[in-house]
Amino acid sequence: MALCANIIFPAQKNTYMLSQLFQKGLALVLLVAPAVCPAGTPSYEDATTAFARGEFSSAMAIWDSLATAGDAPSQYHLGRMYHFGAGTPKNMPSAVHWYQMAAEQGHQESQAALAWRYYKGEGVAQDYKEAIHWFTRSAINGNMQAESQLGWMFLNGLGTAKNVDEARKWFQDAARHGHAEAQNNLGWMHLEGEFGIADYAQALHWISLAAQQGHPNAQDNLGWMFATGKGAEKNTAKAIHWYRKAAINGHASAQFKLGTLYYNGVDAPKDLKNAKQWFEMAAQQGVAQAQFNLGVMYFNGEGVEKDIDQAISWIEQAARQNMAIAQYTLGMFYQDGKVMQQDLESARHWLNQAALNHSPEDGFLDDLTRRIKLLLTGSQDS
Q: Which residues lie closer than 8 Å to 227 by C-beta, 6 or more apart?
């Protein structure tokens, strides 16, 4: 008995991705000149020096004093300390308070930080309209990440009516400023004809720029374009090149696609060991198709020593993610009792789940129906 992997090459999904502004730690962004302090009074520079030394309590005390006196950069950094819990317990309402104080003085980074709090509902009630207000003020002040996020919000109608032209404007502004995520999003919109007609040249241009900056989604998109010939001349070597870059950057879908290419052996030389490696990486990140395919490879001993326990473990993980063919396979195992102990209740559960989650094009539907009927009639013949 041999199983067949689910090796249909996946359609590329829209890979717009939300910016992760200000979520990468407490890096200091000293964009505004600090206030001049009288001799003997701790200064802004003293706070940054203390912070760099890990003396968070001292830095916080200085920034608190300066922030209370109205210094916007100090208000911003004090907000970040409350935001991330550095030198003080995390306190999002206090972070919002200080971001707001600095934002109202025109501090670009604070405006964007405040916008994100309204967008996510952190320390304040979620309010997309207020988020747009502050993202706009930050973008006008030159923050390219805020420009990109405005594009996303206008594209999806968050806090405003959906407006593709406005989304395009903001994505273009951010993309021209070198923002990789905006470049990827703008390229994908051109590829999908979001502006009325597909423009493959523009799609390739912007997605390539983002990919060259190391943006994993863009690298995956570019690999898909070369793999499928949509928006670029089909070139498997280039597809593998960009998929590999995205996969090494941890992109689960690219890992799965690489595994599929090596498993199929159609557009690239068949390489089961490579296929197993990439399927396993994607499976560990929760990609159900990769989990199922890896289970099949263990079951059949393809590119790996045969291991029924590993096979069942991976197939069950895929089944628990509502993958119909995995549910059908697990139900079949329980019903037949050949590779695992027969358990008709478990068989009934998984076969019924497969019936709920199947697609019309699935090739196992006739046997699924037959097996469910056998369970209903009380017959154990399979």
A: 9, 234, 236, 239, 243, 257, 261, 267
